Amino acid sequence: MKDIFMHYSSFIRQSGNGYPLIFSLFVAALLCVQARSAFAYDFNGFTISGDERAGWVQYDYDNPKGKPDINKGHKDSHGFYIMPKLSIETPSYNNFRVKITGAAATDFGLNDHDKQSRNFVFDPGENESFAILQELYVEYENDQHHALIGRNEIFTPMIEHDDYYMLSNSFEVAAYRYKSRYQTDLHAGYFHKMAGVWDSGDNGTEFHSMSDASFVPQVNKNEADDSGVYYAALDFSNGLHRAQLWEYYAEDLYNIVFSQYNYTSSTSNFSYDAGAQFINFSDVGDLEDSSTSINYNLYSLKYDAAFNNGFSVATGASKYSDGKGQGDTLGAWGGYPYFANGMIFHFFEAGSLQNAESYKLQGSYSFSSNLTFNTRFTYFDLDDSNSISSDGRPQSYMKLYGVQLKSQFMNSGYFTGTFEYHDTDHEKRVWALRLIGGFKF
Q1: Which of 26, 103, 287, 296 has the fewest CB neighbours in a 10 Å radius?
Q2: Quick one: pLDDT band at residue 265, thresholds 50, 70, 90?
Q3: In DSSP terms, which residues pair with 281 in a beta bridge?
Q4: Mean predicted lDDT score pLDDT of the chain
Q5: Could you give the CA distance from residue 427 to residue 19 in angstroms, rounded to a whole number?
Q6: Under DSSP, is residue 389 helix (H, G, I), strand (E, B) or coil?
Q7: Which of 76, 33, 32 is nearest to 57 (CA)?
Q8: Per-residue pLDDT tens over the stretch 382-439
Q9: Rounded to a whole number, what is the largest CA-CA distance in the chain?
């Protein structure tokens, strides 16, 4: 295997910037298959598992030099990466178990480091391969109680692992869930630190406090003094109805109230999910007294339907209030529960989402249980008195056109290919491509 990789490295370097993408993915698949067959096993009750992921990521902003008056200065970026992950989990003893996960991201020095600033794999300042102790936690679970403390890829609506890209977020967290007898789960906990290049406002290749990982200006991070985020929640579900209410309190930064209701049902021909969502962001503590303003809310509706013939449709509409703070909050810490997003691009390509509206229409077809094609159009109706282009002109719209192919194979293999074209008022055209696949074992 080492000889194969040496020949591959030589071939890439001789090819300059013309990356042979298909060959890259083929070699990554070989690495994945070998790792899968070599390491997937149980040993005296200890479970060894992992995820060998590889992918090509490309963002084209029509801005090869990163000029500040074009697409907010975002620079054209591309690269191929391999992301190995390996976990060891102990057997359960009196309902306790321990898990440890190591992960890494590398390009083996093959990419042009001047073309990686927008790929969200390495830290954009360092542009270096890295390894991280992503999980190390103790967990307790019985029929009613679940408790966890340590590093974990936790999932909640507004702070979550976001495992749809190259390497998921991880958090240092203390979390507790109680399953009541009334079809309601109670949640409480505290997020202390996070790591995640895609969603952290600090160096995401290392663990930093939640305040440092936020998207607020540096002066506000300093005032928050490495503080974390407390949370509590009620989650009711009886099959047809689900109602959630989550509260996140980030000390000296801002408070989030997340509420959502879903009604899901089915007939002989299709199933559907209708939902309504309200999210409120408001500054608290030291940030409330600063020049940074976070005070807005977001209303959303959705209707998704899946038919027995393989077709499905997903729709969403959102309204942002006229308050400020979207750029300091949306997507921070990994939570993207919003009903009307794009497939790759979301918020930060427009000048502002203050007083904006967004609409999503997605159509899908499942060729089989393992192969699905999705196409999506998302339209942002921008308020041109608030949203200003990179060269100072008012913006009235942002349009996102996306296509995606998702596949599962060989029991634990997966692949997702996503392309999205981006058209924003008074900005140069933008497109992005993600080809990400691997094996879980």
Answers
A1: 26
A2: very high
A3: 256, 296
A4: 91
A5: 28
A6: coil
A7: 76
A8: 999 999 999 999 999 999 999 999 999 988 999 999 999 999 999 999 999 999 999 9
A9: 65
